[in-house]
Predict the structure.
Amino acid sequence: MQTILRGPLFGPENLLRDNRGMHAAHPDRTPGSLSYEQAGVDYAQIDPLKISAQRAAAATAGQLAAHGFAEVAASRGESAYVVDVGPFYLASIVECLGSKALVADEMARLTGRSWYDAIAQDTIAMAVNDLITVGATPLVVQAYWAAGGSDWFADAARSQALVQGWRRACETCGVAWGGGETPALAGIVEAGRVDLAAACTGIVQPKERLSLGERLAPGDAIVLLHASGIHANGLSLARKLVERLPQGWLTEVAPGLSYGAALLAPTPLYSPLLQGLWQEGIVPHYCANITGHGWRKLMRHPRELTYRIHTLPPVPPVLRFIQQHAGMDDRDAYGTLNMGAGFALYLPANAAGTAVACARRLGYGATLAGEVLPGAKRLVVDPLRLGFSGADLDLR
Amino acid sequence: MQTILRGPLFGPENLLRDNRGMHAAHPDRTPGSLSYEQAGVDYAQIDPLKISAQRAAAATAGQLAAHGFAEVAASRGESAYVVDVGPFYLASIVECLGSKALVADEMARLTGRSWYDAIAQDTIAMAVNDLITVGATPLVVQAYWAAGGSDWFADAARSQALVQGWRRACETCGVAWGGGETPALAGIVEAGRVDLAAACTGIVQPKERLSLGERLAPGDAIVLLHASGIHANGLSLARKLVERLPQGWLTEVAPGLSYGAALLAPTPLYSPLLQGLWQEGIVPHYCANITGHGWRKLMRHPRELTYRIHTLPPVPPVLRFIQQHAGMDDRDAYGTLNMGAGFALYLPANAAGTAVACARRLGYGATLAGEVLPGAKRLVVDPLRLGFSGADLDLR
């Protein structure tokens, strides 16, 4: 029953993606600034279901005993669910793209080309980047593409972009695309729209690769892997913001780069990097995929620890643009968006340099950004003079 | 490349659920009868995507070699995707409920109670009943509940019904509910609606339990496990039909049983039975989950074999009612709906009696219904004087 009280059985990025972050982070907001409530997501309405589902899900864990297996209880509330099946651990996850498809649709209308190759990668990234946090090697991805009607699939250019983007993302992650489900759900999914999700299954092998945070401790280094942009979190806000922009989606956020195109920069797939670290003999003590809640997600692990950031990763232009045009101060921006930190590795301090070098060799941006300290659950961002307390991350 | 030509990488129940069955089965239809085209699903529009996705998915199989694993190629085109991970096989699947949620919504409006406990079971049945066809023991279910807005989750009675129905179905199947995703997708999912799906992961252990049809052969017996009603296939047609009924959803299909309630009889979970058979030492040579394409699905395996049915299972009243009111002859009805056969087991003839007894002991209806014969791919239903050829099942 501890796990119920401690953690969401539905990971925070599930119920809480595109979410209340800003309000919780900064109740006294500037008039004229945009909030997630204004963007249409009301978590007070979802929470009772979430709690009830968490309890019911936790109550089913004992079912595994009949098969001679057991859940890894510490994975309840983490980004992927882990079961001990003997020779290794089994990890699984289902993840949704969210409302980024609506941005792809708008940009297709304006540019005459499909952007579904990019959001195919985003969808897989949502699943794979969660699955790898526990130390799993992703093996199989299943596609879930639910359209508002059969006609959605008749747009050949869009369909091809989706298929090829999906395939390439699978290849990047070294996973087999097992199959999937492509229902036409008129009356459930809006006409002309698609609900994209991915299920991913992997294994933790050898079992020593499990990284659920048991070894997370003061003295660990924090390496932040760079983000390519907004990823798939914050899109409700980003879509609301477009109404204020003079050229809408085509407003430039940097020379030659439209707001819409910048939002659609695909989320990096961090899986090859985690495999690369393993080949270097590095097992992270913990990992956090930075989705909903922005940097507050750095405090994800339930333990009472302080996380001190001394060096900031570069901020993608589109996130700086959103911060400025939505009237967000640093507290709002870093408490809601990834602000350049797509994924956090918590490592033994003596492995941090190797990890950063390995990341760069594999083409990822990476910053040795901070350290874990003893103390109350707290995130301190020195360069911005910001602090968030554990209470600011209301995931549990 | 054989597997591309041979089988759908997206199982037939994926792209082809609620589908063209009737037209393909009976081109010369009676005026006034209902077809799937009329019910709004047009598969000619989906097929190019399907073929392209199949090829792209098949091309990713080699990715597993880098991890020291390999796909089980015969599982491409079957109901679950199977990977050889050494000590056992890993099987995974994602499945969608489809449009049955719309019937639950209508019945809630008319009866003042929620029917989401029933369709929670249906959703899990769609995934689990597919996963077990390959011989897998399902271990983990992930929930995918995408709503049209946060307010969907605020209906406490409905949410509780969904949660408790989901939990009970997991318990029946002996699986752990790992977690899931509950996004609020305004602008993608229709307001007031929910898109329900389930991902399921399991293992085949020992590996001898794999039932992809290698041992399927003439002389095998066919045992049909009884259906509870329409399950989750045929709902588009069933919803179209309601417009013709005098009392609509509340029209009686049997004394005291409304059409709507009968449609919402939850799909049986066949997993405990497959576990029971294993405990009796019975490994089916092959299994078919009867979803889209009705009885034509009995010819699912790619091999050239003739399937002769000598004994019919009882027809649930709601299916007989649909057949009559939609003006379907037996060819249409059996070629489209399950007509009482929810799941088919292909077994060594000398195990059939034990299998039927085991099913009944565990509370399932079961009929020793037919046999496998040498010959061209063909289904012969003797009691109805019906025959379907392999060309009538255009899955591949």
